[in-house]
Structure formats: structure tokens, C-alpha cells
Write a structure and sequence with these properties.
Oligomer: single chain
Strand content: 15-25%
Radius of gyration: 27 Å
CATH architecture of the largest domain: Alpha-Beta Barrel
Number of domains: 4
Amino acid sequence: MANDSWKEADTKARAIVDQLTLDEKVEQLLNVAPAIPRLKIPAYNWWTESLHGAMGAVPTTNFPEPIGLAATFDAPLIKTVAATISTEVQALHTLGRQTGHLGKIGTGLNTWSPNINLFRDPRWGRGQETYGEDPFLTARIGVAFIQGMQGDNPDLPDIVATPKHFAVHSGPEPSRHTDNIFATKRDLEDSYLPAFRAAIVEGKAGSIMCAYNRVDGQPACGSPMLLQDYLRDAWGFTGYVVSDCDAVVDIYDNHKFAPDAATGVAVALRQGVDSECNNATLNGQTGLGDRYKASLARGYIGMSDIDTALVRLFSARYRNGDLPGLSSRKPNAMPVKMIGTAEHQALALTSAEKSLVLLKNDGILPLKAGTKIALAGPLADATRVLRGNYSSPRSAPPISVADGIRQAMPGSALTLIPFGPSITDGDPVPGTALLTPDGKPGLRAEYFNASGDDGFEAKPVLTRVENTLVSRASEFQQVSKRYKVVWTGYLVAPETGLYRVALTGVKGTVSLDGKAVVSAEDYSRWAEPLDLTEVRMTKGQRYAIRLQGESSIAPSPTIFWKRISDNVDRDLADGAKDADVIVAVVGLTSDIEGEEMPVKIEGFIGGDKTSLDLPRDQRAFLEKAKALGKPLVVVVMNGSAVDLSWAKDHASAIVEAWYPGQSGGLAVANVLSGKTNPAGRLPVTFYKSVDDLPPFTDYSMDGRTYRYFKGTPVYPFGHGLSYTQFSYAAPTLGATDAIAKDGLTVRTVVTNSGARAGDDVVQLYVTPPGFDGAPRTALRGFARVSLKPGEGKEVAFTLSPRDLSFVTRDGVRALIPGDYQLSIGGGQPGTGSPVQTVGYTIRERVDLPK
């Protein structure tokens, strides 16, 4: 039946392609595929993002950043999360169809997720988008995400998943358009490709995205080794390939791999890149159509190359339900009401709770009811940080740690202590601080349709009251594709004090008595750092707002602000004097660590980190808080490992919160209060310093990650504590006489030996004999188990021959003869975690396929 679906879809796709003109064909190769009215083909945009939540025109559900999802060590949960995101992506497509806005970013029935690159180095800014440093964990979580996203039948997917970035891609961000990465055959097979293989062979992903960089001299989007030898020949991939945005442009323009632009596009197309993402489309410009035509005219590509790509693309649109007419499925029509449901909101909270990692606890946690809490740090009442990278500003309003504590611990006195100016500052102004010109909640928004090439109509086509500074044009059919919006009203400070205020994605003023206190003469660029202005504001005072935005501007329209202290030492001492405990919320944001961005400040450059240290002001603040003599609980928000050695030595407890999503603050509060028993585990190693690591640009795995790191980390991969304790029975093995054929089964019983109910993450590691290039140890199984006090459950792992294999120095995956040790328990062997061990022997070498 599956083959019949593909065959029917391919046949219908071929019928469309055969009727297209050359101009129409070339246009369809772009991520923005225009409508073809004469064939009744609607517009389609292949650019849809949903790493940890659908990004679209209405308030979607925002889950923890992928690094946090990985910390759950809960593949079934990730599958459910992905299925929920898939539902909302489908509903956004329905909304686009209803409003006539198909063809806009975020309306397609495919998604450029998940990111399954290996987080090999904590300096990489985009590591937060991944599932961590281990190929096995990344593969298992990645497959679960793909299966949840695509649904039960990958041949007729709900949404086409697109694992990225294929391959050997993990920074540095500033040089990604020119980098030439050299990876040994061992590192390719052992580290960089296993998750992609699993995504295709097991997950049945319908698409894949090729990366910016070169690999061993060849552009990843033009590599016969990657796109042919591995992807299609070894792994049997039959879907379509999309380029990262401008990666096809890079082949000639930046890598200089091709002698001219026409040859550059030929390199990609002939190796099987079917769809070209081009950043020019963000500003309504065209892609590389002229280059494709020139390439065709010169004979670098044939019409059959173009046709093959287009058949793959149109076939996918039939199979995902975008195009009607396939006998085996109905058109995709998920109701819009399925976005942001109560069930989805509850899942966001559960996911956040399960992602939190208790790194240290000297008994201070959980906090007792009635505890007087001094809450401090730059992120204590922050909201933007919770959403993380690749998140929609239209997702549900995030719950800060401050608001989470107020909700979870109403009987505890909470004192919120303001922090000084910080690189993490800036949260969207909430609707509660905005008034319309006539004094009602919100802002007046007037939408003006385009007129001519550059102008706009004199009268608004739509006037509404929005609850905050937001454009909702995509929800209304009468608003044209190109438009401007003008917001007017007032900003009202909830309390008197010193604020830092910034505008993004808009131009105009916030003024008092006709004098601008904050202004923007032009639109900001994407990922541009906030230009924050200090303003002393008075409670209840109205500051007039007149701001304008346009549809072609990439940054979302936002007024950012942050109330700050003008005397941190005084406010800290005053706020903590009557407290029983100080809870300090510190860390980073995805505005300083993330994808290629114009950031150059101490510790950060271009999206990457140059240091593992917390920002200098935060380190000083923690020392001052500790000096007050109160117990200190440190909550850390970040997308990558930071040096927590000081906190490990001096804090009473440490909670790693990642970027935990819209409900992150409540999840943190539930862990602090004991309503939730934490059970997250680290998906990355927490090192002390970059001095412990090889150079960032060196892609050799020697000395990297827990598998090959020879030093002592601050906290090891797989580490995480609980409010209860667990014990493990001695493991038992199944038959070991046919490992090469049948693999191996391992069983143990895990028991909650403490007084609280809780989850444990049972981890299985294989330690190989010391052959050349062998890792220290390697994760080969994990299971998250919920146990009541005194309860025990059997946990069984069935290890395939591939799970038991390792990679030789010359890059061959094989069952390698020798004596092996299995360790099963609460973490890595040799790190102090409780484990039980058992040995087995492989007697003959068996080579496995790529």
C-alpha cells in the first residue's frame, strides 16, 4: 500500500511537471513556490520551523528548547511533544488556506526540524537546538521526534520532517558559509552520521536539509559522498533534499567551489538538492532562477535534472495532503482551534518539569511551605529567555520564575530583588502595561495595504485593538501580502524605577509630553542586539506610543523593557535580610548564544561562546549573595554547558533549567517546592573551561564529549539527582552465543528505595576493550521509569548488533572481538553514580553496513 501511495503521488506529480514552462519550473525550485492558477496549484512555502513549537501567525505552544527535551531522556514523551507540534503546524496550514495567505513562511505541511547535529563543543551557539553530545541519545530522541511529527504512516505523513544539517555541522557560526571541515572516516561513522542514518532508516524522514559548510573539500549541498553514497545508496532515502538558506548560493559565492554561478547551482542540483532555500525571499526577492536557466543553457544540467527534483517536491505535497486528489488520503484540514489547547499547554508544563536537572542538593530542596524567599538575579522575572532559540513571539505568554513561585507557593513570602544592567536584559512589554488612545487595555492597530511598488493606501483596511504590540495580519483575509501597521496608545509603568527600554522591528517613538524617551528612526536587522535606553519611569504615568511596522521586516515588532536596580548591593542586602533562602536565577539567553548573529561582547562572538564562564556581573553577584550567609539556590538558564564549579563548591543547590519554554517558570517553582520530583539528566558534559577542550575549529572527536574526554568534568554527561533514591539489581544477560545475529538482551530491576515517588532514568553503557580509537564508554540504552516509594520494576534493554558495534580507526563499523562490560544504573560508570555491571565477550569480527 505504501508503494502504491508513492507511485500514485509520483504519477500525479509527473503530470504537473510535464505541463510546466521553464519559468514555472525554475520558480518551483525555490522555498517560496508561487501558485500556478492555470493548473489550480496553490502557492506553497517550504520554510516552516518547529524545533520545539510551531512558529506561525497565532499563539502556538512553546515547549522546552531541544537541549532541554533531550534532558528528559524520555523518547515516548518527545514523540508526544512532536505529534502535538505537528497538530499545530497542520492547523497553521489550515489558517493560511482560510485567509488566503498560503505561500507565507510557516504555512507549509513540512517542517525544517529536528536539528540532529552533534553538540561536540559547548562553544557552539546552536547546540541548544540539538539533542546533545551523544550520537545514540541524539538518534533515539531524533527518531521519536520524526515519528511524532510525521504520524503513523511516513508514506502519507501528517507533516514531512526534515532532519538537519546534513552533515558534520556544529560551528563556528561566523565562518559557516566558508568553512571546510575535515572529518576522519572514524569520526564520520562513529559520531557525525549515526543520528542521520537512524532518522532515515528508522524514522523514515521524508526530507533532509544539507548544511552550509564543505566536508572534506566538497560543499555539503553538493557532496556525492553525503547525498549519494550515504543518503540514497546506503540508506535508501527516497525523499527530497532542501538546502539550508543560501547554502546553494554559497557554493560559488563563498566557497568558490565552482568557477561560476551557473556551475554552482548545477553542483547542487545534480547531486540531488531539490529545493533551494534563499534568504532573499524574506524581502520578497527572487532566488537563483537566472542561474538555473544559465546552467541549463550551457548544458551543465539537463531538463531531466530539474524535472526529477520537481517530481519529488510535488509528490511530497500530494502525500502530505496539501494537494488534493490522492486516493489514499484526504486533504490535510486540521482545525485551527487545535492550536494552543489546554491539553497542549499542560504538555508544555510536563515537558519543562521533566527537562529540569537537579545538579546539586545539600538538603535545602525541596523548600518547605512558608519559606521566605529572596528571588534575585537577572533572569528571576524574565520571560523572553524561557522561549529559547527558534521560537515564536506569538506563543503563549511565558511564566517567569517569579510568577511561577507566586503560583506554586502562595504561602511563601517572596521578595523580588532587581538586578543591575545585564546583557540578558529585555522582555516584551506585557499587555497589562499598555493602553489604547482612549484608555482601554491594549494598543490600537491600523493595517494599511500596499499601493504601488513602495507606498501604502491612505486609509486602513483594518483597525483593531491588540492586547500587545503585535501584527495579526495573517489572520485576516482583507490584509494584503505586503502591508504596514501603525500602533498607537500608551505605555504605563507598573512601578516607579529605572527601566531599560528598546524597540525592534518598528520605527517611531515612545514619548512623554511630546518628547521622545525612546525612538527608532529605522528598522532593526534580524538578530541585531537590543539598543537599550535607560529611562526613569513613574508608576501610572502614560508614555505615548506611535510605532510603525512593515510586513517585509524580519524582526517581530516588539517593545522590550526591564526594570533594573541603580544600587545592586543595597537592594540585594535589603531584599535578603529577612529571607530564609536566596534563589538566584542566572544564565544566558538565546540572544547572545544562537545562530549567526552580530554579537561581539565579552565571552561571545557571532552567536558562539568564547568562554564557559557565566557573565562577569553574574559571577560577582553570586559571590555577594553567598556572603550574606543565607542558603543559596542557583537556577541556571542556558542552552549550553557553562562553568558551574563555583556554584558546585558554594551553593546549597543547583537546578539546570535550560530554556524551558512557556511554562518554564512554573516548572522551576514546582521543582523548588517539591510538587515535582526532578529527574532530568545532562545530555552534555559540563566542563570547567575551554582550556580543557581542543580548538573549536578542530572536528576531531579526540578529547571531546564524555566518550573521549580524558579530564574531570564539573558534572558528567548523564548526571542528575532526585529527591528520592534508587537501587539496581544485578543485571542478567540473555543468550550470548549469537550476538552477531540476534544481539543481546539485558535486564535489571530498579527500585525506589526512598520515601518519595519519582522518576529514574536507567542508563546502559557499554565499555569496549582497548582497541585503537575505542571510546571510554558509550551509552547504548536508557529508560525513564516512574516509581512509587518501595516499588520496583523490571527494565529490559534489547541491544541490536548495531548497538553492540563500534567503529575501527579506519572507519568500519563492526562487532569487534574482545571482552566488554555492560554498566546499568543511574549514570556513567566511574562517575560516582550507582551502577551494576556484567561482562560479555564477542569472539569474531563482523563488519556492518554504513
